[in-house]
């Protein structure tokens, strides 16, 4: 019942994903049902409240969840082999959600076994859980870019501002990267915008797989991406940018009977060296990115540090 509500109320998605999700739910549910009836001859013994049948119901529910997640994870990883398994499997929030679903499903099953009239009492918590899931999805949609799944520009700026304030307070180093896909317009013109979207998704997936969990990565607009590297000095930031450049340069997007390859250019800026706030860092990194493009693209550049202006001889502030 909960899965039906989720499929009806979740945000719109393409048809084949709904078909596959429904098939995965059906296969997992059928397998769990077969195992449960193999362990429990008469399901109505649940109404007696004895331990073994209830334990069998819990095991069947766990089996359903594991099979469903495994099928979805395999499909997601097959569709995007560059993605890490940890991105399509559990995180803390999904584990908590699965536990809540399992507990609620077992309670509903036992309640229906005792008396079908109790189903009326079970519906409100199911609907409440569904509404909380929908609210979480809406919150995530407001923070993420629809095409790449990365933070959108507004959400990235909020998190970047927070990290910069923390770094200035603690005196930690922090670096910022601006990454641009070289000649992205040529990809759209030659292969169409759908292929261009696949390239964006591939680049975003590569960024996620090569960065740390606490690095702040987002799509800045068009073919530009921004990365904040807390705790990174200029040497580490340059190494990270070079690694991203090499990995993305070796990436290939399959399109019909050909492979689409792209390169990136990147500009790097360091907190307290090239600027003291987000605007200064973005400006410095953007100037470095522009220089990388002028030098032929497919490279990483760092802005030249300008020396502080010398005070005028008659400046009263001169010691």
Radius of gyration: 26 Å
Number of helices: 11
Widest beta sheet: strand line-up: 2-3-1-6-7
Query: Helical percent range?
Result: 55-70%
Q: What's the story with the biggest beta sheet? A: 5 strands, mixed
Instruction: Report the sheet-strand fraction.
Output: 5-15%
Descriptive notes:
The structure is a single chain. The protein has 319 residues and is an alpha+beta fold. It has eleven helices and seven strands. The protein has a five-stranded mixed sheet with strand order 2-3-1-6-7, with helices on both faces. Strands 4-5 form a two-stranded antiparallel sheet. α11 (278-294) links the parallel β6 (264-270) and β7 (300-301). α5 (92-114) runs antiparallel to α6 (119-143) and α9 (193-210) crosses α10. The relative contact order is 0.09.
Question: Can you give me a brief rundown of this structure?
Answer:
The protein has 319 residues and is α+β, with helices and mostly antiparallel strands. It contains eleven helices and seven strands. Strands 2-3-1-6-7 form a five-stranded mixed sheet, with helices on both faces.
Notable characteristics:
single chain; 319 residues; alpha+beta; five-stranded mixed beta sheet; two-stranded antiparallel ribbon; 11 helices; 7 strands; 60% helix; 11% strand; elongated; disordered C terminus
Spell out the blueprint of helices and strands.
Blueprint: H1 2-9, H2 15-39, H3 51-79, H4 85-88, H5 92-114, H6 119-143, H7 153-170, E1 174-181, H8 184-191, H9 193-210, E2 216-221, E3 224-230, H10 234-250, E4 253-255, E5 258-260, E6 264-270, H11 278-294, E7 300-301
Parallel strand pairs: 6-7
Antiparallel strand pairs: 1-3, 1-6, 2-3, 4-5
């Amino acid at each position: 019942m909960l899965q039906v509500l989720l499929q009806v109320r979740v945000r719109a998605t393409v048809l084949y994903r709904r078909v596959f999700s429904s098939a995965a739910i059906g296969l997992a549910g059928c397998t769990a049902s077969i195992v449960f009836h193999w362990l429990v001859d008469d399901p109505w013994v649940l109404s007696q409240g004895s331990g073994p049948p209830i334990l069998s119901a819990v095991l069947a529910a766990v089996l359903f969840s594991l099979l469903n997640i495994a099928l979805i994870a395999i499909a997601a990883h097959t569709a995007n082999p560059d993605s890490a398994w940890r991105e399509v499997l559990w995180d803390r929030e999904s584990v908590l959600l699965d536990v809540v679903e399992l507990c609620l499903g077992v309670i509903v099953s036992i309640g229906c076994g005792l008396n079908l009239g109790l189903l009326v009492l079970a519906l409100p918590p199911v609907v409440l859980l569904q509404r909380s899931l929908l609210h979480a999805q809406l919150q995530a949609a407001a923070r993420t870019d629809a095409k790449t799944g990365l933070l959108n520009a507004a959400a990235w700026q909020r998190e970047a501002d927070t990290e910069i304030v923390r770094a200035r307070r603690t005196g930690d180093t922090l670096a910022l990267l601006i990454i641009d896909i070289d000649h992205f317009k040529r990809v759209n013109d030659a292969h169409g915008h759908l292929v261009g979207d696949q390239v964006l998704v591939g680049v975003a997936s590569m960024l996620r797989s090569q960065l740390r969990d606490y690095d702040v990565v987002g799509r800045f607009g068009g073919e530009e991406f921004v990365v904040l590297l807390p705790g990174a000095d200029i040497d580490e930031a340059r190494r990270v940018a070079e690694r991203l450049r090499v990995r993305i340069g070796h990436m290939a997007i399959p399109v019909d009977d050909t492979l689409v390859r792209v390169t990136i250019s990147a500009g790097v800026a360091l907190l307290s060296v090239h600027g003291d706030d987000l605007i200064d860092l973005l400006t410095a990194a953007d100037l470095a990115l522009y220089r990388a493009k002028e030098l032929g693209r497919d490279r990483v550049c760092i802005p030249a540090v300008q020396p502080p202006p010398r005070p005028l001889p008659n400046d009263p502030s001169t010691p």
